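Morning - NAX inputs below, output right after.
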Amino acid sequence: MKIVVTGAAGQISYSLIPFLCEKGVFNCSSKIDLNLVEIPQAMQRLEGVVKELEDSAYSNVNKILTFDDISLAVEDADWCLLVGSIPRGIVFKGKEIKERADLLQINGGIFTKQGQAIGERSKDTCKILVVGNPANTNALIGQKNARNPRQTWMAMTMLDALRAKAQLALKIGCHVDDIYRLAVFGNHSPTMYPDLENAVINGSKVSTLMDDQDWVEKQFLPKIQQRGAEIIHARGASSASSAARAACETVKAVEHKTRDGDIFNAAVISDGSYGINEGVFSGFPLISDGEGNIEIVRDFSLSDFAKSKISITSRELDEERNLVGDLL
Ligand code: NAX
């Protein structure tokens, strides 16, 4: 299998690539080829990463190549993990990028090119996971420019879901693996909606184990929605190892059959399910058959409270789509 990672010399990739090199992530018996992509200015840093990967002598890795040209890197790719992007706050062409609209345009340029290359050159069965922010709308730009309906484009919401599971497990006093059907709806942004109404712990609905809507509204939701900012404040840098693990967990979730009664989380193109407008990338509960097919789970029941939260994040996705209309 050929695995492409962009932003390969960045902080998330530093943790992500070693995870991907371990056995059992991809559902195949063959070894993996890694195509690592960076911008020209970061190629020297990337060589350092490659040296460490070589020194790790992974039995599951066949070949590691580096690229500063996306179109060469994605030839025949099975997976593309699009981590590289320009962060908010950076000075770009003499201007500090503060506004979401500016960030969307700059990263939009990156994802236009990457989408075209993947659509033309990667396998029709290729799976693409966008991690670089604003991830949902970057995925939309990539997918629209790829013009290859057989490929599967996703944006990462797994980190939000893992954060939600961890906080719920602390509240209930259970293990994270005991939690099923915890879905994150909407955008990977502070408007996201992590839903506890359909979550199940060891066969019981969370609502039967806990009657504390005050905690849900005043503590749980703001905590998950603002967790990224909390990490930046504490660490002086954005989440890296947890984001890397979430990206690897997304790959695993797609590659392997979903356990009975459970779902996994990623953003995919909306078909209008749960009132989210068609044609934006939104977080949904998903299942995988382990043979390359994923689909939205449509049997979640949502209260008026949940619907009102989902409509906020859905509106934000529509606004983002309108801001990049010229790139679609
Ligand atoms: P870093 O700045 O450490 O690394 C990004 C790397 O991407 C840099 O090495 C840069 O040279 C490279 N890059 C930039 N443009 C590129 C291009 N056109 N082609 C190839 N490489 C390119 O950021 P890091 O902390 O690794 O974060 C990467 C992205 O993940 C950011 O956009 C960040 O906001 C996003 N995140 C997304 C999350 C999610 O849940 N979806 C959570 C974590 C993270 O915040």
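Note: The mean pLDDT is 95.

O.
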